[in-house]
Design brief:
Length: 173
């Protein structure tokens, strides 16, 4: 009995300290937003998309021009193939083959260049958005901010966290 009393007396300060620390502890604040919604609302996003559309249109026009050139030469080849001597026939076949290979290579390089340009353009836009999110998080004292897009966060209790979509949009202006 005496040992039990001593044990209780020793544990009393620990339980009081635990209760006191849980009372004094600040709740963790968190925010959430739809990253894509804010991103697509940015004027820089629209500018990057328009720039990419213009560049894509230029590549498409060049691809069409090259394709038309190939089709014209192919039609000429078909019309004259019966009258061509063997050496001219092989030369023209080789020319068409080389043209086709260049066209395929150009289309592949164009797709790669478009992807690269889009990544570069969007990197600057995303960096600006990330900076705004960081600023809002620091200013409002959030422990973290969640991105709720694409089902990444299936449930967020709006009573415990704050929707920062509009606050971040305002921070971008």
């Amino acid at each position: 009995m005496r040992n039990l009393l001593i044990t209780l007396l020793l544990l009393l300060p620990l339980t009081m300290a635990a209760q006191e620390s849980s009372v004094n502890q600040k709740p963790i604040k968190f925010g959430y937003l739809s990253y894509e919604t804010v991103l697509k609302a940015m004027p820089e996003y629209e500018q990057a998309q328009q720039s990419m559309a213009d560049l894509r249109q230029k590549y498409d026009a060049e691809a069409k021009r090259v394709e038309d050139d190939f089709n014209t030469k192919y039609e000429q080849f078909l019309e004259g193939q019966k009258s061509f001597p063997e050496t001219i026939l092989r030369k023209r076949q080789n020319e068409l083959q080389e043209m086709m290979e260049r066209n395929v290579k150009f289309k592949s390089e164009a797709r790669q260049q478009l992807r690269q340009n889009e990544e570069q353009a969007m990197q600057a836009v995303r960096q600006k958005l990330d900076n705004a999110i960081n600023r809002v998080g620091q200013e409002k004292g959030y422990a973290f901010i969640l991105n709720i897009d694409n089902g990444a966060t299936p449930f967020v209790n709006p009573q415990l966290g704050d929707d920062l979509t509009e606050a971040v949009k305002q921070a971008l202006h």
